[in-house]
Amino acid sequence: MNTNWIKVFVAAFFEVFWVIGLKHASNFWAWSGTIIAIFISFYLMIIAGRKLPVGTVYAVFVGLGTTGTVLSEIFFFGEPFKIAKILLILFLLAGVIGLKVVTKENSKEGENA
After folding, report:
1. What is the domain range of residue 15?
2. Which residues, at least 6 apart from 21, have a Cβ–Cβ distance to it below 8 Å?
3. If both were cysteines, with which of 4, 32, 53, 107 could 48 make a disulfide (CB 3.0 to 4.6 Å apart)?
4. What is the pLDDT of residues 56-83, one digit of tens each?
């Protein structure tokens, strides 16, 4: 895996934090952290999109972010566990992994865009 895909995964990781922050932030520090997570998340996604196909980058970003957000809500915030929800998340992850596997890079790493 190259650094551009790592950027997409890190961006999705931060997406989970800002989505949770949008729902649960209630003070200055929580909102500040949410804004920082939004900036990091979108910055990394945009940078990765310069070398990788934008549609695939966005699909992987949103799919992983959605998965992380749903699982975080279940494990940390008391969202009810439903087997159908987990099966649908697994189906979503299968699509995200499939997109990642079949996508070729536009250019070699290190070349100018």
Report:
1. 3-102
2. 30, 31, 33, 34, 37
3. 4
4. 899 889 989 999 999 999 999 989 999 9
